[in-house]
Amino acid sequence: MTETRLRSRKSPYPLWFFLPAAAVYGVLFVVPTVSSLWFSLTRWDLSSAEFIGLENFRQFFSEPFLVKGLVNTLIYALTTSGLKTICGLLLAVLLTGNIFARGFLRTLVFFPVLVSTIGIGITFTVMMHPTKGIINAMLETLAIPGPGWLTNPALALFSVALVDLWKGVGLATLIFIAGLAAISPDYYEAARIDGATRFQQFWRITLPLVRPATITVITLSLIGGLRSFDLIWAMTRGGPGFSSDVIASVIYKQYQAGFYGLSTAGNVILFALIAIIILPLTVWLNRREVEQ
User: Which residues form the ABC transmembrane type-1 domain (predicted)?
Assistant: First the structure.
């Protein structure tokens, strides 16, 4: 008899005890998911739905601006996730050291996480104005010509990504601080006795032992980047042109235009994209952690 069967026989809870949770899960997750899959295969106008097979998906991948949204989503997610991981780790190392006003600096770094995303988007839109914004005004005092942060198609997406980094790096830093606090000081004491430099301590001790926090930050920031919408919509609405459109903004525009079936297909593609990227990545990172 397997161990699983023994555990199930010893369980003090009958199966019906789990029914309320299963019902809530079914109503809030299974039913909307199955409904979305169905409506993505239809020409849907809210009052009626005509089954058209995979036509919505074919149309999605045949429209250049829709494909542009898909590519931008991947660029945005990888950029914000990578920057949050690197900057969050460096800030956490700095804020766990013996520095002046450490508690105040931690609060300062975490504060943007608490502010409304829409409010931050509107504020930075004003600050990044090409002629009236304070950022370009400060650059002018240094004799540096300020670019069109949100009006230049080559810069718009990355400008929003930098604002996303400013808003989200506090949460990444907090997770890394918790990971660093769990490392025993004995490792560093032994390394110092052996003559290890600060960089060697960071590379050989901090980086491997903070791996669980790194996996958490990468996973959360990557999911957030793939699903990002509110900040991009508040700052550029996908423009100029389609240069900063992501899948979520494309889906919203299709809903506004009345293409409900096509926009639902976009939702299904976004769901599949997140699952395809996050699940194998999480399994791979956790497997490497166990091996180490």
Answer: 70-281
